[in-house]
Design goal:
157 residues, alpha+beta, 3-stranded antiparallel sheet, 12 strands, 32% strand, globular, binds FE2/S2 (inorganic) cluster
Length: 157
Amino acid sequence: MAYHPGMATVSRRDVLAVSAACAACACCGLSAEAEDVAADQFAAEQLIADTKPPFDAGAIADFSQAKVYEQFARKGKLLIINKDQRVFASSSICPHKSCVVKLRGDKLVCPCHGSAFDDVGTVLSGPAKESLLRFAVSVKDGRLNVDRTKSFAERDW
Ligand code: FES
């Protein structure tokens, strides 16, 4: 099963296929250096990463509307985001000090110290200096699977 850093496309029939751009890229794994940086910067997140097999977020058809889905924000530590018919799995954990971000209007805002991110997790204002991590996703039998053991910083989106 191939995993991709938050890039999948929802068709009109709610059938999800990995986007052509993602299928053609070589971004499905971090370099050793990138992994080290991510581990250092987001050690707290690594502690909560699910080391079990991929998390089944549900039927891909359930994420067909363009919006941020927050149902896994606390317990699952992730957000499912549909933006322009691409489905992303983003961390819900603020890279500053690991609070859970919340959707406020069209922004994701951290309630602890006020960092703000746009609706795909790009940092807009600090104190957080990094955007939200994304997790690898795949679709199998119409189900969206998220592998939280594979995370991607913005430079690898
Ligand atoms: Fe999010 Fe500090 S923990 S801004």
